[in-house]
Design brief:
This protein starts with 13 loop residues before the first strand and ends in a 13-residue tail after the last helix. It has helices at residues 23-35, 45-50, 69-81, and strands at residues 14-20, 41-43, 60-65. 34% of the residues lie in helices and 17% in strands.
């Protein structure tokens, strides 16, 4: 899928960092990870979107390289704190 980070064998195998029922949430986290310098991919989003009856049984996974897991956890904690959010009363100019 476009937007996924390329695989680098030097970083180790892909590991699941987080799972979501919503592909949108997975893509948002992937973007934050990549903005934080951590390679990331989203897995199973197309399966969930194509087979909506499976959506409650199959979760969308966000994967990061094994050797970058600690960095990814720090970025995810910042994401959950709201460090990547935009103020509601401000319109971005760029």
């Amino acid at each position: 899928m476009h937007g996924d980070s390329p695989y680098d064998p030097d970083d180790g195998d892909w590991q699941t960092l987080a799972t979501f029922f919503s592909p949108t949430e997975a893509y948002l986290l992937r973007g934050c990870l990549q903005a934080g310098g951590v390679p990331a991919v989203v897995a199973d989003a197309h399966l969930v979107q194509t087979h909506s009856l499976l959506a409650s049984a199959v979760q969308v996974r966000v994967l990061v390289p094994e050797r970058r897991l600690k960095d990814a956890e720090a970025v995810m904690a910042a994401y959950q704190r709201g460090d990547f959010s935009l103020p509601d009363d401000e319109i971005p100019t760029a």
